[in-house]
């Protein structure tokens, strides 16, 4: 396992935990154990009586900072990122990412607690917090790959957190084994809806150091008809999400297509832009191919990614008809659904930079990102991919 190699790389030796669950393990011991032997570690966690406050301050806060700090350092050392190499922009992005990650911990814990009884489990805000905090270990650790652009695609390993959540659902929330997968999928789909909405209502973090969005977890509520109401976010119909989950289960055994097949879809030229380089890679449940195109001092990348089962989750989010829009004097961001496919569009008029992405067949993501004469050129880049041929790869 690559994550195992990561622990060995940083010099962490084999450590045994107290099987009686008496003394809480150190951050490194717990992180290693939950990644490398989750089935036994969840049983240890279930017996522990560590206060949620201690888990938050001594475990969640340090790990949640890994991704934002790595992204900030990478943007300054390598000069990449959403806001280029701007010190203030990179710092603002790091701060907002850190804050959002911690806010998300409480929101997802609330959802996990409220959904558990609907799947035969037992509501427990304390256990729900433990389940989410420790299952997020993989996604937080994977943030270290943002330090080096060439390794950025390895952040996909953070998806292992979904498996950790799935394995921990039974011992902590007492969800029956046969319902644990659906419980996990519904929770994840709720998170997708919430996070896209949160980002839609967040002001541009590149122009401020702090963020003002702090949903009140205490004022969240649920109704008997299965709806979750979250102030500042909206109401989520868990009935629709449960149906989406059943559709999603069919995608669990998907294998990502060969990177070379995705690379073959990248055209040598797009309008006046010529392809300058091409690369492809595969990591765990995902594969991708990316080409860099240049013309008249403009440069953008065109990426085709097979997200396998995780792509189906994005497809289900699109099936819910998600829409959001934000615009100021210089830029805009829009998320909507076109023919059942999620479409995300961003453009900054001043810098002539943006991105255009769409989910194809509830599995593939095609995205053009970078500098261009207009957003239409990025749309044309996405359209240059043979969608019929891409869809046919799903059956190979």
Can you lay out the helices and strands and say which pair or pack?
Layout: H1 2-9, H2 27-36, H3 38-47, H4 52-64, H5 66-77, H6 87-115, H7 125-135, H8 137-142, H9 160-173, H10 177-201, E1 221-222, E2 227-230, E3 234-237, H11 238-249, H12 259-263, E4 269-270, E5 273-283, E6 286-295, E7 298-306, H13 308-319, E8 324-327, E9 331-338, E10 341-348, E11 353-360, E12 364-371, H14 375-383, H15 387-393
Helix pairs in contact: 2-3, 3-9, 4-7, 5-6, 6-7, 6-10, 7-9, 9-10, 10-11, 10-13, 11-13
Structure commentary:
Mean pLDDT is 73; it is low at 1-21, 79-85, 200-222 and 228-235. This protein has helices spanning 2-9, 27-36, 38-47, 52-64, 66-77, 87-115, 125-135, 137-142, 160-173, 177-201, 238-249, 259-263, 308-319, 375-383, 387-393, and strands at residues 221-222, 227-230, 234-237, 269-270, 273-283, 286-295, 298-306, 324-327, 331-338, 341-348, 353-360, 364-371. It starts with a helix and ends with a helix. The strands form 2 sheets. A 9-stranded antiparallel β-sheet has the order 4-5-6-7-12-11-10-9-8, with helices on both faces. The protein has 2 domains: 2-209 and 224-249, no CATH class; 259-393, Protein Transport Mog1p, Chain A. Helices cover 46% and strands 20% of the residues. It has 396 residues and is of the alpha+beta class.
Radius of gyration from CA coordinates: 21 Å
Give me the secondary-structure category.
alpha+beta
Shape: globular
Q: Could you give a short account of the major beta sheet? A: 9 strands, antiparallel
Give the fraction of residues assigned to helices. 40-55%
Ranges where pLDDT stays below 50 over 5 or more residues in a row are 1-21, 79-85, 200-222, 228-235
Mean of pLDDT? 73
Whole-Å distance between the termini?
26 Å
Question: How many domains is the backbone divided into?
Answer: 2
- Determine the strand fraction and express it as a percent band: 15-25%
Sequence of strands across the biggest β-sheet: 4-5-6-7-12-11-10-9-8
Order of helices and strands: HHHHHHHHHHEEEHHEEEEHEEEEEHH
């Amino acid at each position: 396992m690559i994550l195992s190699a990561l622990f060995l790389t940083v010099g962490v030796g084999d450590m045994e935990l107290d099987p009686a669950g008496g003394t809480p393990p150190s951050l490194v011991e717990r992180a290693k154990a939950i990644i490398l032997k989750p089935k036994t570690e969840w049983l240890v966690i279930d017996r522990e009586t560590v206060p949620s406050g201690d888990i938050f301050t001594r475990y969640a806060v340090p790990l949640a900072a890994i991704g934002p700090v790595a992204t900030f350092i990478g943007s300054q050392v390598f000069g990449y990122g959403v806001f280029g190499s701007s010190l203030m922009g990179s710092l603002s992005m790091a701060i907002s990412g850190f804050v959002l990650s911690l806010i998300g911990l409480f929101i997802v814990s609330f959802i996990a607690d409220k959904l558990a009884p609907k799947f035969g489990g037992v509501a427990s805000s304390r256990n729900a917090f433990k389940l989410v905090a420790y299952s997020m270990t993989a996604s937080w650790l994977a943030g270290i790959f943002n330090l080096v652009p060439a390794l950025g695609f390895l952040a996909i390993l953070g998806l292992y957190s979904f498996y950790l959540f799935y394995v921990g659902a039974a011992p902590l929330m007492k969800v029956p084994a046969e319902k644990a997968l659906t419980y996990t999928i519904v929770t994840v789909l709720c998170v997708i809806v919430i996070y896209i909405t949160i980002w839609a209502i967040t002001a541009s973090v590149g122009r401020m150091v702090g963020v003002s969005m702090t949903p009140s977890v205490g004022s969240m509520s649920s109704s008997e008809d299965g709806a979750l109401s979250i102030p500042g976010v909206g109401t989520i119909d868990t009935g629709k999400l449960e149906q989406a989950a059943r559709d999603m289960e069919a995608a669990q055994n998907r294998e990502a297509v060969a990177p070379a097949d995705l690379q073959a879809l990248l055209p040598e030229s797009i309008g006046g832009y010529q392809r300058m380089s091409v690369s492809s890679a595969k990591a765990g449940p995902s594969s991708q191919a990316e080409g860099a195109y240049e013309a008249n001092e403009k440069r953008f990348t065109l990426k085709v990614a097979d997200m396998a089962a995780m792509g189906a989750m994005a497809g289900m989010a699109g099936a819910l008809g998600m829409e959001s829009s934000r615009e100021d004097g210089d830029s805009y961001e829009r998320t909507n659904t076109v023919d059942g496919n999620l479409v995300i569009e961003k453009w900054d008029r001043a810098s002539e930079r943006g991105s255009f992405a769409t989910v194809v067949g509830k599995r593939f993501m095609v995205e053009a990102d970078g500098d261009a004469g207009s957003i239409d050129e990025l749309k044309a880049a996405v359209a240059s991919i043979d969608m019929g041929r891409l869809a046919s790869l799903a059956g190979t």
